[in-house]
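wait is this the right file?? whatever heres the structure
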């Protein structure tokens, strides 16, 4: 499945899981034990899709730097997310789930717009990737 389809799909799946978590009144309900691991699977799926897309999009001399930029952005966004979640949690303990679900939907909409307009970026030619692998072997 192409990365440009898998990224919005995984974001929408994660948003639906988070919205379901928001709707659960009792955290000890059996459905919660099924939904919580699915949330983590979708979270890691988003990360893996972004890393896979970046490895196909950038030449080998820029990949390390771009992975560092994504890691830095991830850490900064985690700090912002935790700050917002504490404010949401004070209003209602279930609000962080809704906030995160809405952010995932917003991000998926942005990705879909970028993909449909052709602004997301082109991946490298497969011949370039084969030459890149040959360079690593030699």
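ok assuming it is, sequence goes like this
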């Amino acid at each position: 499945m192409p990365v440009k389809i898998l990224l919005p799909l995984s974001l929408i799946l994660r948003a639906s899981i988070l919205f379901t978590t928001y709707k659960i009144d009792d955290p000890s309900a059996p459905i919660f034990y099924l939904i919580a691991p699915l949330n983590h699977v979708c979270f890691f799926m988003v990360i893996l899709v972004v890393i896979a897309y970046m490895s196909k999009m950038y030449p080998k001399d820029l990949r390390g730097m771009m992975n560092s930029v994504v890691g830095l952005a991830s850490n900064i966004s985690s700090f912002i997310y935790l700050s917002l979640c504490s404010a949401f949690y004070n209003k209602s303990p279930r609000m962080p789930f809704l906030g995160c679900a809405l952010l995932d939907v917003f991000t998926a909409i942005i990705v879909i717009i970028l993909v449909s307009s052709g602004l997301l970026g082109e991946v490298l030619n497969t011949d370039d990737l084969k030459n890149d692998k040959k360079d690593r072997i030699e």
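The chain has a mean pLDDT of 80. so i think its the right one actually
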